[in-house]
């Protein structure tokens, strides 16, 4: 969760006994470290807060406004989820008085993603590698090595092994420029990855890809089982492997989610650390 700096604006002009609003179309904006913008516009009668979200992923936004002399038209009491690629989404608005002074200040709190997303627990994921291949799950949920309090999976795979999408969705982030990897947390931020947005608002992350190991681009729609990348050893890694997780972002941080996989034609469920699994379908 991120909070913007406070912004202040005061508008009043005293003329005899009356106070009039004199700026017809002023605007001021807050620009975050992700590609969206919160701003307001003042007309003769209203103060309106908008957001433009240029990201592919939704953004959850809350604007806290302290004001005097204004009257609420549209209240914003909690986070609003603004869809990706949306312009002039109205967050909140106020009625401007005709003959009295008024003022306001505001700050913006935002989370990248849909904080209200609810994972479809009935969805059965396919194994994230090529049909007919067998790989060992060397670290499972809450693993002792690096998965403490984390629902994430590590599949030991050879360098360059094909990685396939476990679930259909929209590619929202790709990083493949890193050549660095080491068996230390200091390399944590050096992993190449692909992130895919699902239709329930959750996101799958496929990490530790090799240099230039992404075979999809941001904005691509991928199908379940589609070839998307190549395994590598970038980031915090003692050897080549695929780190797979499904998550959502919340006010408190990233929440990783347990998922079920198709294990055999007549069996599905969560995977067990130390076991080997063979992909039989996409």
Summarize the structure.
By secondary structure, this protein is mainly beta.
Which whole number gives the mean pLDDT?
86
Number of strands: 28
Which structural class best describes the helix and strand composition? mainly beta
Give the CATH superfamily of the largest domain: Glucose Permease (Domain IIA)
What is the CATH T-level topology of the largest domain? Glucose Permease (Domain IIA)
- CATH class group of the largest domain: Mainly Beta
Order of helices and strands: EEEEEEEEEEEEEEEEEEEEEEEEEEEE
Q: Structurally, how many domains make up the residues?
A: 2
Shape: elongated
- First-to-last CA distance: 35 Å
Rg over alpha carbons: 24 Å
Helical content class:
under 10%
The unreliable regions are: 5-32
Q: What's the architecture of the largest domain, going by CATH?
A: Distorted Sandwich
Strand content: over 45%
Oligomer: single chain
How many strands, which pairing sense, and closed or not: the largest β-sheet? Answer: 11 strands, antiparallel
- The total of helices stands at 0
Topology of helices and strands:
Layout: E1 2-3, E2 7-11, E3 14-15, E4 18-19, E5 26-31, E6 36-42, E7 46-53, E8 59-68, E9 71-74, E10 80-82, E11 86-95, E12 102-112, E13 124-125, E14 134-139, E15 152-156, E16 162-164, E17 169-175, E18 181-182, E19 192-197, E20 203-214, E21 221-222, E22 227-231, E23 235-236, E24 241-250, E25 253-257, E26 260-264, E27 267-269, E28 276-278
Parallel strand pairs: 13-26, 18-23
Antiparallel strand pairs: 1-12, 2-12, 3-4, 5-6, 6-7, 7-11, 8-10, 8-12, 9-11, 14-15, 14-28, 15-24, 16-22, 17-19, 17-21, 19-20, 20-22, 20-24, 24-25, 26-27
């Amino acid at each position: 969760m991120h909070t913007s700096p406070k912004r202040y604006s005061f508008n009043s002009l005293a003329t005899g006994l009356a106070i009039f609003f004199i700026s017809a179309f002023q605007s001021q904006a807050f620009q975050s470290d992700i590609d969206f913008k919160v701003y307001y516009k003042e007309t003769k009668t209203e103060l309106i807060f908008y957001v433009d979200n240029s990201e592919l992923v939704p953004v959850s936004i809350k604007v806290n406004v302290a004001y005097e002399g204004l009257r609420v038209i549209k209240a914003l009491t909690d986070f609003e989820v603004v869809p990706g690629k949306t312009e002039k989404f109205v967050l909140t608005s106020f009625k401007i008085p005709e003959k009295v002074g008024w003022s306001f200040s505001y700050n913006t709190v935002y989370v990248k993603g849909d904080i209200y997303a609810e994972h479809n627990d009935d969805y059965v994921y396919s194994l994230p590698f090529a049909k007919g291949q067998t790989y060992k799950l060397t670290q499972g949920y809450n693993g002792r090595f690096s998965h403490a309090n984390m629902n994430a999976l590590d599949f030991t795979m050879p360098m360059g092994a094909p990685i396939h999408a476990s679930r259909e969705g929209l590619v929202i982030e790709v990083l493949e420029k890193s050549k660095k990897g080491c068996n230390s947390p200091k390399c944590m931020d050096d992993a190449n990855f692909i992130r895919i947005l699902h239709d329930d608002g959750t996101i799958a992350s496929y990490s530790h890809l090799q240099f230039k190991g992404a075979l999809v681009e941001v904005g691509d729609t991928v199908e379940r089982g589609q070839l998307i990348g190549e395994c590598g050893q970038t980031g915090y890694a003692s050897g080549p492997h695929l780190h797979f997780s499904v998550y959502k972002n919340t006010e408190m941080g990233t929440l990783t989610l347990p998922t079920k996989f198709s294990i055999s034609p007549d069996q599905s469920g969560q995977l067990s650390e130390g076991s080997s699994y063979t992909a039989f379908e996409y």
